[in-house]
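To: structure desk
From: M.T.
Subject: fold request, one chain
Message: Could you run this one when you get a chance? Sequence is below, nothing fancy, just the single chain.
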Amino acid sequence: MTDTIFLPDPDATDRFARLIAQHLQAGDTVLLSGHVGAGKSHFARAVIRSHFGPSQEVPSPSFTLVQTYQNDAVEIWHADLYRLTHPDETQELGLADAMETAVCLIEWPDRLGAMQPMRPIHLRLTSHGDGRIAEIMAPHHPDLRAALRAQGLEDFLIGAGWEMASRQALAGDASGRRYLRLRRGVQTAVLMDAPHGQPDDPAQFLRISNHLAALGLSPPQCLAQDLVQGFLLLEDLGDDLLARLIETDPRRELSFMQSAIDVLIHLQSHPAPPNLPDLTADEWAASAMLGIIGDTTPLKSALAAALRAHANGPRVLILRDYHCENLLFLPERQGLAQMGLLDFQTAQMGQPAYDLVSLLQDARRDVTPAIAAQLQLYFIQKTGQSAADFSAQYATLGVLRALRILGVFTQLNRNGKPQYLRLMPRVRDHLQRNLAHPMLADLQAVFAQYAPI
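Reply: Done. Structure tokens follow.
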């Protein structure tokens, strides 16, 4: 897997090189690619000086082709193969033996041809403004990736002016992201660390955040960003999650949930950002089959038919994970802005009742049937929908969401996160209740035959 790191200035490149130098040992080779002037020699010089001292003279090997450095601890070969015209010429340089016994830094490695190192570190440098972007792939150095991530974080915080802040880990979510609360005197902020390779994109987080803010809502403001590496420094909205406040004082549940529904209605009454995912009924149905073993064709067909019949109207923006652990109460603000919003980067187009299902059929907490019914009526009256049509839409989307959550929790358990298994009985109960809707009798019959719950 390739890691991408933004190096904003020469000092950042030096720190990056010194960090890599700490992980190099005899038999390691760094293959340095990039256009002329991208910083390959700068990087190599910093690696060499990290072992031989800042006063070590490091001439370019452009004309000598190879420069060697040795002390009691390490032997380093620095090669520039730009002037070679054929891979066979590398045999005369002694690089084959050096790649087994020394640390090698090789610029223009495409000239090596078939003579490839056993433990390569591939590093491509590209100019980017006043700095450069480093793309590194080091499959034989697992510890290096974690060290580079940590160094990238430090560089980001230095650039944002928060490097001296204290750090406290915050509860994460089901993704590969992690969150840290930073404290600098009386100021606080939240760091989102979102490594590449995750389905959630920090750039999408910012796009949806900007949209929500433009509607007068309260996503966390972005204070600093590095989208190349996946770091965001965000406004700290505090700890007053609705789930905690309701647990402390259940009498506030109805008013909090009505406020959350008011935010949904406001959000859905405005056009969504362009080019968001907009799945067909068949695609939605297929996405819900993750946790079901065996042939899912009958289930997918039945669910897709139910979606087309009851939940296939005009699309609105849905946030997808709209529940009380992603909503905060901000009493110092006014109106709809009192509801802080988190975890919306997977927003897409969907049906109006989808986020309401997420709110009222919460996998993490119970909402009593009486309160759920009262809040559904509140949504119906506020939006002017037909109660009968809404009821069928709500139940169908409830089946869809319950199946998707069960599949996600099953996958998370396989990936070493078994804590979500304790939530599955509640979600299965949601699924059964939704399937019991009179308009879903055909769907219930298919589930009874192919996927008994």
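Reply (cont.): The longest strand covers residues 119-128. Let me know if you need anything else for the meeting.
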